Amino acid sequence: MLTDVEIAQQAKIEKIIDIAKKLNLTEDDLELYGKYKAKISREVWDKIKNNRTGKLILMTAITPTPAGEGKTTTSIGLADAFNKLGRKVCVALREPSLGPCFGIKGGAAGGGYA
């Protein structure tokens, strides 16, 4: 079985502009931080706030499994599942665990194939 690092090194990074296009966002809707990261501008909310077909799922707390699957892994898994069902989906992860910095539990990105 591959380690998390080996799996991550095999991943193909997609440019954030290409991801934004899948969500019907333009380059003007983004605050770019290089080719692979961006924030969505505040003005986008004015465009979509009356869209009744959108849903928000907020993952606020979960007890991790012994293997460490918690909020991040579950959030990514849900997004992957909705994407597989053909839904347009976007995940925002904030303040990942600082466990690796302090040598305690916390993977900060879901690890593995997440």
- Mean pLDDT metric: 81
| Largest sheet report | 2 strands, antiparallel
Shape: globular
- List the strand order in the largest sheet: 1-2
Task: Bin the strand percentage.
Answer: 5-15%
Would you list the SSEs in sequence order as H and E? HHEEHHH
Tell me the total number of β-strands. 2
Helix percentage: 25-40%
- Number of helix segments? 5
Going by helix content, strand content and strand pairing, the class is mainly alpha
What does this structure look like?
With 114 residues, this protein is mainly α. Helix content is 33%, strand content 5%. It has five helices and two strands. The protein has helices at residues 4-10, 16-22, 43-48, 71-84, 99-102, and strands at 30-32, 38-40. It has a two-stranded antiparallel ribbon. A hairpin with a 5-residue loop joins β1 and β2. The longest helix has 14 residues, at 71-84. The radius of gyration is 16 Å and the shape is globular. It starts with a helix and ends in a 12-residue tail after the last helix. The model has no long low-confidence stretch (mean pLDDT 81).
Quick summary:
By secondary structure, the chain is mainly alpha-helical. It has helices spanning 4-10, 16-22, 43-48, 71-84, 99-102; strands at residues 30-32, 38-40. The protein has a two-stranded antiparallel sheet.
Keywords:
single chain; 114 residues; mainly alpha; two-stranded antiparallel sheet; 5 helices; globular
